[in-house]
Write a structure and sequence with these properties.
Elements: H1 7-26, E1 37-39, E2 44-49, E3 52-58, E4 68-75, H2 83-95, E5 102-105, H3 110-118, E6 122-123, E7 129-132, H4 133-142
Helix pairs in contact: 2-4
């Protein structure tokens, strides 16, 4: 993607953002009024409401493989109850629609690294974790 987002790419990003917002609402991650924000710099999508915190890079222009989504930050008000798995399922379910081939977790801490390993991500570089959408889909199909 070029630095200037063309109208087709903007339509795609808006579609993904709307689907992401619907996912957040349907899973009651955001209860109050919140705003899904998009920033052109690295195509970031941000949502923060209380302890629920999402910062994604949607097909970033530099430093990642093509057709990637990068989970730069993620946090839930409730942990260890399946919210992260629901989020990964959302990404996999939308990967074909939005041609997302690769999923990264950026600079994961120890807890996030264990989560990444559980779902078959491999250590990439600089603390990042990587998997493909198809490998993650298969892994999620093996999990309850």
């Amino acid at each position: 993607m070029s630095a200037d987002i063309d109208s087709q790419n903007l339509i795609e990003i808006n579609g993904f953002t709307q689907d992401f917002e619907a996912f957040l609402k349907s899973n009651k991650f955001c209860k109050k009024s919140y705003k899904v924000r998009f920033r052109k710099l690295n195509n970031t999508i941000c949502v923060r409401e209380g302890e629920n915190d999402f910062y994604l890079r949607y097909k970033p222009e530099r430093g990642w493989l093509d057709n990637s989504i990068v989970i730069a930050r993620i946090g839930f008000s409730e942990e260890r109850v399946g919210n992260g798995t629901k989020f990964l399922r959302f990404l996999v379910e939308n990967s074909q629609k939005y041609a997302i081939d690769n999923i990264f977790i950026e600079t994961a801490n120890d807890i996030c690294g264990k989560f990444a390993q559980k779902y078959g991500f491999i250590r990439w570089s600089d603390g990042h974790w990587f998997t493909t959408s198809s490998l993650l889909k298969a892994r999620l199909n093996d999990c309850p």
